Structure formats: C-alpha cells, structure tokens
Amino acid sequence: MAGSSEKVHFMADKVRHKKRDGVLYLMSERIAWCPQGKNHFEASHQYAEIKCQKISPESKAKIQLQIVMLNGESKTFHFADTSQEKAKEQRNTIKDILSEMLPRFRRKIDKDLEEKNKLLQQDPELLQTYKDLVGSQAITPEEFWATHAEKLPSDKASQSKQSVGVSASFLADVKPQSDGCNGLRYNLTADRIESIFRTYPAVKKKYLDKVPDKMTEKEFWTMFFQSHYFHRDRVNQNSKDLFSDCAKRDDQDILSLLKLGVKDPLVNLLGLKYEDLSKDEGYGNSSGPAPQNAKVKQSSTQIMNKAIIKRFNHQSTMILSTSASSDDKALNGNTENGQENDDGSVQAKKARLIDSTLYDDLSASKTATDSSLNLQNSERYSHGPTLLSEVHEELEGRAILDGLRVISDQCASYKPKLGLALTSKNASLALSDLSADARSRASISDSFIDQILPGNLRLDLQYLYASASELLRHFWLCFPVNTPFLQEKVVRMNNSIHKFRDERLATFKHSLVQNRVEVNVAKHLEDMLNNAINKFNSWQTRMTKKR
Questions:
Q1: Three-state secondary structure call for residue 282
Q2: Alpha carbon of 427 to those of 9, 161, 430, 432, 442: distances in Å?
C-alpha cells in the first residue's frame, strides 16, 4: 500500500481494471490501483513514466480513463459506479489532477532515444549485442549506434525529408459533442491546434496576444468556435466578435498578393476580386463594362456562397505565397548573371504548358500497331537453329566415310592413363555423393548444429557470434593505428576481447560441458578472438621496438 509519507490526492472506489474491481489512488508521485480485498498494489506507475492520458467519448456507455506509458504500454481503468454521474465526476476529477501532475514530472525524452529503445525491443539479437558490448563498457553507446544508424527510422527519413501539409478536412474532424447541459464540447488536440495556426495565421497572432495574459486558453477556443470567423456561412456578424478583424486581415493578404502578382503566367488571379461575373456577357469568363451607379442587392444565399469562396481563395493565396517563395529559390539557383538556364527553365515551362493544354480524354484514340513476325522458315523458328544439319547435308558421301574412319582409328589407338585416375576410395565417395540418397545426407549435414545443440544453447551461440562480430569489427577498424585516438581505442578493444573470451565464451563452453555436447562448436569463435589478440600482441611488440 501507500507509504506513510505519501500524500493521497484523490481516491476512487469501484474502479475496474482487467475485469476486477478495486480502488484507484492518485498520490503525490504516482498513480496506483489496488484490487478489492487486497493490501498491495497490482498496478503502480510513476507520473514520470506516463506519456499521456485518454478518456472515453461521451457517447460511449463505459466511462473509462486510459494512461499511455513512455514504452508504448497502456492501462485502462473503468469507473463502474452504479451512478453514472458519480462515475463521470470521479473520472473527470482524476483527469484534471493528472493534467496538473503530469507536466511537473514529465521527462523530456529525446526522439532519438525513443527510436533506439523501440529498435532494441523489436530486435532481440541487437538488444543482446547492446548488453554485451555497451553494458560491459566494451564500446561506448555512440560507437554502437554509429554502426547501426541506418536501422533507425529518423536516419532513413532524413535522407528525403519533406514538410507535411495540413489536411483540408482537419476541421471536419472537430465534431462538437453535447455535454449534457445544453452546451457543446470540442475535443482539441495539439495537432489540431497546430493545424489551425498553420491554416489561419491571424488566429495564431490573436492567440499570442490574448493567452494567457487576458484570457485562459479555454475561453479563447470557446470564443473561436462561437465566432463569425469560424462559422463564415453566417450572414449577420457581431460587432463585438474577437475575431472580426481576422477576416479583414485575410482580405488584406489577398489584395497584397494581387498587387505583388505571381510570375507564373498560367495562374489567373482575377477571380480573387470577388466580382459577380455570372450575369455578364461572358457568363463568368470575362467581365464587360459595368453600368455606373449600379447596385445589385445580394441575397443571403449569395452572401453565404461569397464568404465560402473567399475562404477557399484565401487558402489558395496561402498556397501560392508558399510556392512563390520556393519558385524564387529555384529561379535564383537556375539563373546566372541575369540569364536563365535554357536547359532547365525552358523545358520545365514547356512541360507545364503541355500539361495544362492537352487532355488525354479529348485526344484522338491511338490504335496500337503491332509489328508482324515475318518467318522465312517456320520449321527453323519452331525447332531452333539447324546449322549442324545443314552442314551434314552439304557433306558428300565420301567425306562422311573418311570422318568415320578417323574416329574409328582414334578409338582403336586410345590408351587410358591409369596413373591419373581416381583411387577406389575417392571413386566410392564420388558415387555416394551422386547417388539417390545424397540429398538426404546433405540435409542431415545442414541441420548438424540443430541436432547437437538444444534450443537455448543454439540461441546463445547466435547471440555470441553477433556480439563477437561487432566487437571484432571495431577492433580491426583501428588498423592502421596512426592516431592517438586509435591507439587508445585498440588497447580498449583488446581488453574487451580478453574479457569477452574469458567470461562470455568461457560461460558458454561450460554450458556445453554441462549439456554433454562433445563437439566444440565454439572453436571457430575462439579462433577469431585469438587471431585478434595475436594481432594486438604483434602490433604492441613493434611499437615497443620503435621506442
């Protein structure tokens, strides 16, 4: 149970975990769950080990709270009180306490450290190698991860890193839920808030100005979801709206882009001026001279549609401004002394022009013209080349008889060289290898290790080879030893090889003796280690003579 010095901030009874009832405790440094009728905790986690918390949605029948640990594990607690209101009140109280306690104890875990930990958990062989070498201080963690850096996801992503845009439907996922008191509750995550800031920079500026000096974060987002700026299909606008100037700022951004212009000739910005061109002679494609002092009263539907179009145009403006900056960088890279590079920019413009003017579905259908096969001799095509038969056909009868006579004389005068023939033993082995049961004996030789070693020793041998290969690779990379750093490292590697041979390998050989394995399967591994030790001794002898 809780220690005498631990302070219990909150205690909730009738909390079910793994289908068993118990009591959930929130103490000063940890959260713990004790099963009913027991005097010890079966689930106890420090606040520093918790990554985040999640709660069940209001529409779900079960009232649950889930805590996610830094190692990826999760624990779910079901508040099973008979009164739904009391269970929900307990859950919300614990959620608020955790929201206050977690930031105090949360450790800032490096992303690279999380990736390395996850990789070690997924690869048991790599984990054992890490324990053997880094745990025994044979090599440093930096040296170990420098070898296996290509296995990390961040190293693969850094080779082709691209910024991810904001989904066009991210606000559609923010669905309000009823809180049971004639109100709506929005569930905002950090990712959705970041998406709002990236899509609407005016809202981000307003957030930095108001929070937390003039209002709380909850009040700010409540006013945002109630504002005309969020519900732009509304006709009437409240003059006291906090975000009333954000729409005006968006219009100023569009006008500034119109004045600045875009270098791309395929982009038409005339549609950003918001004139209603649907009633002119061009039916929206071109605007004729408008009559003077002509005022057309727009309906509420037209105002709503105009607001939605302005919203789309502002998003397109943000995309154009971003692409314009990247195009300027590309243009500066392709120009030299004020002249464009004809090979790059001209070809790119032609490709874009063709892509914008040609449509595959409107082009004429092309009939595939297959080349026909013209065979002069169909028998030769079916049976392959017949050069030899043609040669025989060209031979005369006398030439054929002469050839047979020569072959007969060579066979008659053939004398076998018995001194160079195989011995009876080698001939018997060759026949046995070529016999029908050679395949079965080959499979037996392949599974030789599986037959003489049990499963645990076979796995230990695999881990030993992986650790020894890593250690020996670091050792042999020190040669030629031409810097003080390499001199220090080769001495350290030699000591680690001695320690590995005398401890890990000796323990494995002792296990072989205990399991009555007569074959020394570790001989090759021992020879590799001894060769490295002999190399170090010879290098040390040469260094001593030079001094």
A1: coil
A2: 87, 63, 5, 9, 18
Q: Six-digit token pair at 437?
A: 């049961």
Nearest to 59 by CA among 86, 88, 82: 88
Least-confidence region, from 124-128, 166-170, 410-414: 166-170
Contact 48, 37 (CB under 8 A): no
Query: Regarding beta strands 30-35 and 43-46, do their DSSP bridges make them parallel or antiparallel, or are they unpaired?
Result: antiparallel
Please state, in angstroms and rounded to a whole number, the distance separating the CA atoms of residues 533 and 526.
11
Which one is predicted more confidently, 542 or 328? 542
| Amino acid (1-letter code) at residue 199 | T
Buried/exposed 89-115: b ≥16 CB within 10 Å, e otherwise:
ebbeebeeebeebbeeeeeeeeeeeee
What pLDDT does 268 receive? 62
Q: How confident is the model at residue 273 (pLDDT cuts 50, 70, 90)?
A: low
Using CA atoms, how far apart are residues 417 and 423, in angstroms rounded to an integer? Answer: 13
At residue 536, does pLDDT exceed 60? yes
Overall average pLDDT of the 82-87 stretch: 88
Specify the pairing of strand 177-178 against strand 43-46: unpaired
How many angstroms separate the CA atoms of 320 and 260, rounded?
A: 12
pLDDT for the residue numbered 491:
92
Residue with tokens 């645990």: 456
- In the block, residue with structure tokens 């808030």: 193
26 vs 389: CA distance, rounded Å: 96
Q: How far apart are CA 238 and CA 208, in angstroms?
A: 23
Run of H or E residues at 475: helix 455-476
The answer to whether 261 and 324 are in contact (CB under 8 A) is: no
Q: What is the DSSP letter of 344?
A: I
DSSP 364-413: PPPPP-PPPP--S-HHHHHH---HHHHHHHHS-HHHHHHHHHHHHHHHHT
* d(C-alpha 439, C-alpha 435), whole Å: 9
> CA–CA separation, 99 vs 462, rounded Å?
46
Which pTM was predicted? 0.36
What contacts 8, CB < 8 A, 6 or more positions away?
2, 25, 26, 27
Would you say 65 and 91 are in contact if contact means Cβ atoms under 8 Å apart?
Answer: yes
DSSP H helices, 200-263, are 201-210, 217-226, 244-260
Structure tokens at 75: 């624990």
The CA-based diameter of the chain, rounded to the nearest angstrom, is 123
Instruction: Determine if the peptide bond prior to 385 is cis (ω within 30°).
Output: no
Q: What is the DSSP letter of 453?
A: S
What is the CATH architecture assignment of 8-105? Roll (2.30)
What does the alpha-carbon distance between residue 283 and residue 44 come to, in Å, rounded to a whole number?
Answer: 71
**Structural element, H or E, at residue 111:** helix 111-122
Nearest to 53 by CA among 120, 119, 103: 103
